């Protein structure tokens, strides 16, 4: 099986990926489900719970199991939009990046903070900050012009988005990861042309790719740490008050997530899904703890326990 890679939005970008895959413009692409709240309500429920779990491979495995084995609504959303989604991956943990020590909750009051989604925007408002919705591609310019005071990104963004040219302080709050993300989303038109053996090949490789993508974000963080002294970067641990703000927020935000799931996403009974999601994250953190340094062992476990059990001939039908 041979594919040609078009990167950087050469044929499809974030905002037209679903339509392009549905119409066969591309065979496989990656979808950030946050761009499509109406089309993928269950994926956006997942996005609203992104503060749970911080080890990216475990989050990826948990989300993938949830999608295939516990969320019939997820699979229906994909099918309705002409897709077969081969699991979910995760970024590394979001931190606060700026030019000040932001380790105390009081320092966040009134700050304009670029957030990656609605959940993080709610937390910023919870601590008295002002959330700013700026795309990743516009983040550097907005920061350099003073339109935002800080950004919420993985540590690796210091290098990948050149943020270390304009900022040097990182508060390691570990505020969840982005995981509402179909990094291997297959057009149903293409999927229908594949034999059972070919579908299994894609599924097997997806188990490797999902873990590899999550690990790639972690490696990006490590590269920044290696350059920290050269770039004069400073790292700060969150104060007890800042950590408590996250705990308090999760308690108060659950009711809002439930309300949005029912009213906005039209999910009649979201609470069992939310509880299952939390349990799966805890489960996969535990399963990966002894083998967290071995990417192939984690990929094989994901294959053995989840992806190998999927009926590839029924998937997407």
From TrEMBL:
The keyword Signal applies. It holds the Pfam family DctP. It comes from the Bacteria. Keywords: Signal. The keyword Signal applies. This is C4-dicarboxylate ABC transporter substrate-binding protein.
């Amino acid at each position: 099986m041979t594919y040609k890679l078009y990167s950087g939005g050469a044929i499809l970008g974030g905002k037209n990926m679903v339509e392009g895959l549905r119409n066969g413009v591309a065979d496989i692409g990656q979808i950030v489900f946050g761009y499509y709240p109406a089309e993928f309500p269950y994926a956006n429920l997942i996005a609203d719970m992104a503060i749970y779990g911080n080890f990216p491979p475990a989050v990826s495995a948990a989300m993938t199991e949830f999608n295939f084995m516990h969320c019939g609504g997820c699979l229906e959303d994909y099918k309705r939009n002409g897709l077969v989604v081969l699991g979910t991956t995760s970024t590394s943990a979001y931190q606060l990046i700026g030019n000040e020590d932001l380790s105390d909750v009081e320092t966040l009051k009134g700050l304009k903070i670029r957030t990656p989604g609605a959940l993080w925007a709610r937390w910023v408002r919870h601590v008295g900050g002002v959330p700013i919705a700026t795309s990743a591609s516009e983040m550097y310019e907005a920061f350099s012009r003073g339109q935002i005071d800080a950004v919420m990104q993985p540590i690796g963004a210091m290098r990948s988005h050149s943020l270390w040219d304009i900022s040097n302080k990182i508060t390691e709050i570990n505020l969840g990861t982005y995981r509402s993300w179909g990094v291997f989303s297959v057009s149903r038109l293409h999927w229908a042309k594949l034999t059972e053996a070919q579908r299994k090949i894609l599924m097997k490789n997806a188990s490797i790719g999902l873990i590899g993508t999550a690990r790639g974000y972690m490696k990006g963080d490590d590269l920044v740490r290696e350059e920290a002294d050269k770039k004069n970067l400073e790292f700060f641990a969150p104060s007890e008050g800042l950590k408590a703000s996250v705990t308090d927020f999760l308690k108060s935000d659950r009711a809002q997530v439930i309300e949005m799931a029912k009213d906005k996403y039209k999910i009649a009974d979201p609470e069992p899904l939310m509880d299952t999601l939390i349990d799966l994250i805890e489960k996969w953190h535990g399963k990966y703890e002894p083998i967290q340094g071995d990417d192939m062992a984690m990929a094989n476990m994901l294959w053995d326990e989840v992806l190998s059990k999927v009926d590839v001939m029924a998937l997407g039908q």
